[in-house]
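user: can you give me the structure for this one chain? tokens are fine.
assistant: on it. calling the predictor now.
[tool input]
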Amino acid sequence: MALVRLEEFEDEWGKRYPAIGQAWRRVWEHVVPFFAFAPDVRKMIYTTNTVEALHRSLRKIIKTRGSFPNDAALKLLYLAIKNAGLRSLRQTPGCCGSGARCRSAPRSADRPRRSPRESP
């Protein structure tokens, strides 16, 4: 199916942008396994936003602490990673299978979200 789509692209755009089709064909054996994943998983693979968000969370914790004299720092980092994982699951539609709700599903209507400007 992916090869058919590439051929369709080349038929329409190949004369104007020949390097794109050639580049895809050069690395085709590396691209094809990527399409074996579900669309939501593929999105997580090629999107760096999740990685950047995790990095930002960890940097925020590390920056506010001058030093890490004991294991409390490891606990803080563990909790930050765990919370970041739950946030990424909430942002992935259908992450728990067909029609099932995630444990970390977005808040229900009876629990309104606070706007970013409101203080905690």
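assistant: here you go. Residues 38-109 form one domain. The helical segments are 2-13, 18-26, 28-31, 39-46, 49-64, 72-91.
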